Amino acid sequence: MKDNKNNFKEIHLKPCPFCGKRGELNVKYGLPLLGEEIIHCAFVQCEFCRASTQPFGTIDGAVRAWNNRVENKEENIDV
User: Fold this and answer.
1) What is the model's pTM?
2) For 1-55, how does the pLDDT look when each residue is reduced to its tens digit (9 = 90+)?
3) What's the longest Cα–Cα distance across the chain?
4) Minimal CA–CA distance to 4: which of 58, 66, 63?
5) How far apart are the C-alpha atoms of 46 and 25, rounded to whole Å?
6) How far apart are CA 30 and CA 67, in angstroms?
7) CA distance 49 to 66
8) Could you report how far apart the first and last alpha carbons of the chain are, in Å?
């Protein structure tokens, strides 16, 4: 995945793992380097409950962190 503004439409984000609402990709750009904008940080944040990833140096890192889910395995625990 290229870190390019034009590719944002192609990015698939899973629903928020806490409330199930939509996540939003946020990218902060730094000063242009040789005519190209550079990414200062990227993170995904839920539009409703505001849960978010940590800031990453790439869009791919933020998207992978947001979409990463731990499988739910039922455990039989005697109480």
Assistant:
1) 0.75
2) 444 555 667 899 999 999 999 999 999 998 877 777 888 899 999 999 999 999 9
3) 63
4) 58
5) 9
6) 25
7) 14
8) 47
Helix (H, G, I), strand (E, B) or coil at 60: helix
- Residues 55, 23: Cα–Cα separation, whole Å: 14
Q: What residue type is 75 in one-letter code?
A: E
How far apart are alpha carbons 76 and 53 in whole angstroms?
A: 31
What tokens were used for 15? 């629903």
More confident residue, 62 or 77: 62
> Which single residue is written with the structure tokens 């034009």?
6
* Burial of 32 from C-beta contacts in 10 A (0-12 / 13-18 / 19+): exposed
Q: What is d(CA 12, CA 18) in angstroms, rounded to the nearest whole number?
A: 18
Question: What are the distances in angstroms from CA 52 to CA 46, 74, 77?
Answer: 6, 26, 31
Which two three-digit tokens encode residue 10? 């192609």
